[in-house]
Amino acid sequence: MRFLQELGSKHPRLMITGKPLRDQGLVVDELFSLGWKDEVLWELLTRPLPEPLRKSVSAIIAKRLRDALESPLPGPRRTPESETTPTPRRHTAGAHAVIRRRYECEGQDGMCGLPVDVQGDLCTTCSRVPEPAW
Length: 134
Ligand SMILES: [Zn+2]
Description:
By secondary structure, this protein is mostly helical.
């Protein structure tokens, strides 16, 4: 929510208040928990508004945030394999033969397996794990 308030103070045309602010603040929190960087979100939200402006600004911000939620995380994808991880690679046999309605979280080197909505996505637990310090 603070993010959107700051956005509104820097860009008065993008100011939203009240319930839309609270609602969109939750979406912003979710995006951050998915690993979105605030400068990326900022750039996304400060794109020029459509002219003429037919919708309310809060509707436009809501749409931009929703689009962000549905799109893959921007930026280079981090690969878990590096010279410091001696974990043997696992092969999941026949995974393509099973029709799944949901995908599995690939966190913890593929050991997590919690259901997620998007292929290659991480569950909320794994996406919150801090970067390893070693
Ligand atoms: Zn997970």
